[in-house]
Every structure is written in C-alpha cells, then in structure tokens.
Amino acid sequence: ALRDVASPALVLDLAAFEANCRALRALAAGFPAGCTVRPHVKAHKSSGLARRQLELLGPEVAQGLACQTVREAEAMCAAGLGDVLVTNEVVPPKQVARLAELCRVGHAVGVCVDSAANARQLSRAVQEAVPGAPAPPLRVIVEANVGQDRCGVATPGEAAALAKEVAGLPGLAFGGVQTYHGALQHVRGHGERREACEAVHVKARAILGALAAESIPCETVTGAGTGSMEFDAASGLFTEVQPGSFFFGDVDYGRNDWGGDGADGAGGRPWGQALFVASTVTSVAPERRAFVVDAGLKAVAQDSGPPLVRGREEAARFRSGGDEHGIVDVLDAGAELPAVGDQVLLVPGHVDPTCALHDWIVCVRDGVVEEVLPIDARGFEAAASASPELARVYPRAAPLGLRGAGLERCRCFTRAARRGGLRVDPLTPGAGHEAALRPTHLEEHEVLAAHHAPGRQARGLRRHAGEGRHGFRPRRVPLAEMREAQRLGAGRTGKR
What we know:
With about 500 residues, the chain is α/β, with parallel strands linked by helices. Helix content is about 30%, strand content about 20%.
C-alpha cells in the first residue's frame, strides 16, 4: 500500500496520469491535420513511463519522443523507443560521439543546432561513426530564437543559411526548425498567453518564408510546451508539439488560467494533478501550529516556489527546513495537526527537477502500489545499453527493472580496494531496496561503483557487506575494458 512506501518517495497516481493522457488525446483530436504530439521525457526521465505515454496516446497522436540530454536519448533508445529528438544543442565532444554512436547502431535520432560550427562537429562525428552510410543517419533541426533569448539563430536569414549548410554536410539531413519559447508557458492569463504565442507565430512564418525563398523544404516545425501547445497547434504552423508537464501537473502550471471548465475545475486546466512526493511527519509543534516532514531540498524542487500539501492546499504553507526537512505551518486555527508518523503528500512546485532528485517512481492505483519504475535517464553519463559496445563493457543494471545504468569510478571504492576491495555489479533484480556488497580482492584500477544503487550513495554502500537482497555479484573488469568504456564516453557520472 502507498502508506507503506518508505519516504521521501516520488509517487505517480496512475488513474490521474492515464486521465491526463486521455485528455491530451482529446485535445490532439482538435489539432490541424499533420500536427502530432512528441512527449518530452525531460519531465520524468523514465523510459518505462515514456513507453506508457506512447501506448496511451497511440501512434496516430504520438510517433516519437523529445529529450533534452544525450543521456535521455540513450535511455529511450535502449528501451526500443525510436524516433528521438534531442531538443537542445549537443556540443561537448564526448556527448557528440555518443550521439553519433546511437546513429551507428541504427537508432532514429535528431538534434538541434544553432551554429555552423556545431553542425560541422556533428558531421565529422557521424562520418567517423558511420562511414559510407547510404543515407544521412542524423536528422538536424535548426533552432531559432523566437523571443526567449536563450539558444537559437537570431534572424530568418540566419536560419535559412544554417539550414543550407546542414543540408550540404555529409552524414546530416536537414529536418526542420524548432521555435520554442519556454518563458511563455507560464504567462498566467489565458488571453495574454495567446497573444504572446501569436508573436512567436509571426517569427515562425518569417523563418518558413526565408526557407521557401531558398527552395529549402521544411518538413518539421517543432516546439510548444504544456502552456502554449493549444495556441501553437491551432496556428497551423507546427507539425508537432512537445508537452511534458501536462501528464503530471505541478504547482506552477496550476497557477495558469486555462480558459475552460477543466478536468478538476481549477483554473480551467485540462489536466489533473498526478505526481506527488510522499513524506512522513517526523515532528509536531502544537505551540507553533506546525509540523515537520522528511522531504526537504533533496526530495522536492523549490525553484518555482514551495510545494503544496495535498488536502491542505489553502490551510497550510510549506517552507524549507533544509536538505532533509520541510516545515509546514498550519494556517487554519481549527485544523487538526497530524501525528508523528502520518504520511503527507506534497504537490511539487516544478515537476522536472523534482523527478531528477529521485531514482524511482512509485506507481499507485487506489492507494496500492502497482509498479515501481526506474528513473533511468537521470544524470549525464553514458547509458550502457544504448549501444552493444557500451553494453559489452558496462553490463546492464536491473534492480526492480533498472536498465541502461552506467557504472562510475568512485574514489571511496578505490580506497576500499587498498584495504581488500569491494566491488558491486548489479545484474540481478531483487525485491528490496538495499544494495549490498561482497568483498573481493581487486587492484585499484579495477574498482568501480554501481551507478544509481537504490537508496544508497557510494559512500553508504561500503557499509553493507554480504550477500544482499539484489544478488549483487563481483565481476572483474580489466583495465583495457575500462579504458575502452572511457573512450566511448561512458565516464564518470554526475551523481556522487
């Protein structure tokens, strides 16, 4: 049951999630012909959840996925979820090489560029990875700055010039343009948001005109997010939209006016809140009319404001108590305080960075845990199972279905190796969440730590020697294999 889930934990209400998918299908039915949905996985970073999205939306609505990082693309490709577009510029050489590796293996991948230098870099990497390919293996989208002043070429003429350059580079295929304006997603008023989107449409038309003047075909116009997709799709310019938060909801999007009756009557929004962070009351202060939960900055993102307390949205106010604590002030003098040990569900202020703080999504239906999905696209290191070469060097990790997790070199394990060595290799699923180690005698250069070991950071893993519920078993990795993995870009992880 949900009440038995150890906190803090990321929780998905499957009924609400599925209702959101149906709501998006209904919205998409009203889109102009030729406009489809490309769900953005940066919201949740889980290949298992992405598969559910595609299945529930159906191929007539969604035919591909949007990603923001190479790691996300690798995780989706490893799960067999083809037609992936990285809606971002990829410049670091190792990440460019990893993108080219996906092309070599045969995955359908696209990426955005806003400079000729980056386009040439991609071309060289693809030629090296896939020499003599019969057709350009990498689809390239030219990103245009339509007002956010983040990435993108500045003028329609620059967009046409870059598109022409891309089309002439070996290994690359010009696929279209991206005209995304992230800041418009949270313009609160429905009418004001429509007007702001219309300014984007004026710039998009100018770009398409410049491409047509140069006789450059443009098969894709992509962009739009949860807050703007209804207007962007209705413009007739976009061939696809990229909603991410729509499937889950958060406090920030909940502040928007959606201009309709809505799924739950709140601001006319067409989606219902589906994602929560489960926390536990650890302390109660009746004299302050407050209580403390075990979800702090490391469990729920607060960049877009504090979370709301489910069931006490107007009667309580959450404030940060530090890394591991959240303080909830009860504003209603007549409201009863919870007891120590009670479970409290928090509505995150911003869904994307909240998901990035967790290793698992606990999927519940009617208060019962139905499935636990790994957030397998977290971080920035290479996903081993996206490529046979990487998979050979880095075996897949599969606790509770975790796939595509790399291995990271870890100094604390190196120190342990000098004292006799500890080695983990998560190859076998198990029912529990505690990782364990067997002692082995390895040389310093052979010691690697498991990435995303459930519920433990590397320094904690050392303390859990023994057989282990996940069935971790030692495996020697020769120095040559480690160096080969590093050559392929599967280096250190961002998680420490």
